[in-house]
Amino acid sequence: MFENNMSIFDTHCHLADKKYHEQTQSTREIIQQAKKNGVEYILNVGYDKESNQKVIEQLEQFSSLYGALGLHPNSNKDLTAENLQWIEKQLINNKRILALGEIGLDYYRPFTEKEKQKKWFKEQLELAKKYNLPVLLHIREAFADAYEIVKEAGIKKGILHCFTGDWEIAKKFINLGEFYISFAGNITYEKGKWQERWQKVIEKIPLEKIVIETDAPYLSPVPLRGQINYPQNIVYTLKKLAEIKKMKVEEVADKIYVNTLQLFKFSKHA
Question: Of the candidates 112, 117, 121, which has an alpha carbon nearest to the alpha carbon of residue 152?
Fold first, then answer.
């Protein structure tokens, strides 16, 4: 795809998603293809009861996978104390869980009532704080509320996943401590108001505060838009970031990789 000897850490991928169950490629094949394109590690992210359980199963099978567990704001029926207790048990017993997420607020598709979203967002932030874990934040049209809740909870580290905000909100989160801004394949989409916003915000955010993701199987980058996404496709997003930053792809890749290792205090966990 691209000639490289880069090391890449996909900070947000859903290998447990049902969309992959319909594919002929096995999880092993997906990981192997990703490695051929420089993706050394994948953070496999849960978002409801079923996907969280699948994440744990996959961690047991594949050594290059690491995990994050959480209850998405629109997981609705799964936003329960029982499921949160199960997540806490996994955090205690599995050193390859590197973060809590994805969690947050979604006012764009509010399948879950807003007050319920806020309640369980706060509960999960407290859990992350208890175990000193970074959080993976899903925020759509709810940045003001999400920021106040995160600030009040005293959370200082995490990732704004698939960022769609502006520089002002990015700066507010960055100033909380050790927050990073993550970009996915949608930054490669055709020009328009969103492309202009991403251009501006990526130009302003310091490279040392950026990480990268696929959000696979979603958000396939151009030229694969509309297809199921795979971790190997992260190189297109990386190329776009480098283009906007007016830097060599390898330089951007190296710095983003270091950023990710720093956030997760990463070593090869048992």
Answer: 121
SS3 101: strand
Residue whose C-alpha is closest to residue 172's, from 191, 189, 149: 149
What value, to the nearest 5°, has the Cα angle with vertex 148 and ends 142 and 154? 130
Q: Measure CA 174 to chain center.
A: 16
Give the position of tokens 């990981």: 31
CB 62, CB 39: distance < 8 Å: no
Compute the distance between CA of residue 231 and CA of residue 85 in angstroms, rounded to an integer.
30
Please check whether residue 24 is in contact with residue 230, taking contact to mean a CB–CB distance below 8 angstroms. Answer: no
CA dihedral in degrees (128, 219, 165, 134; nearest 10)? 10
Determine the residue type at 87: I
232-241 confidence digits (pLDDT tens): 999 999 999 9
Provide CATH code, domain 8-263.
Answer: 3.20.20.140
Under a CB-based contact definition with an 8 Å cutoff, are residues 120 and 77 in contact? Answer: no
Q: For residue 243, count CB atoms less than 10 angstroms from its CB and return exposed for 0-12, middle for 13-18, buried for 19 or more.
A: middle
What are the pLDDT digits (tens) for 154-211?
A: 999 999 999 999 999 999 999 999 999 999 999 999 777 778 888 999 999 999 999 9
For residues 8 and 10, give the distance between their C-alpha atoms in angstroms, rounded to a whole number.
6
Query: Where do the H-state alpha helices sit in the chain?
Result: 18-21, 27-36, 49-61, 81-93, 114-130, 143-153, 167-174, 193-204, 234-245, 249-263
- What is the model's pTM? 0.95
Domain chopping of the chain, boundaries: 8-263
Residue linked to tokens 């309640």: 119
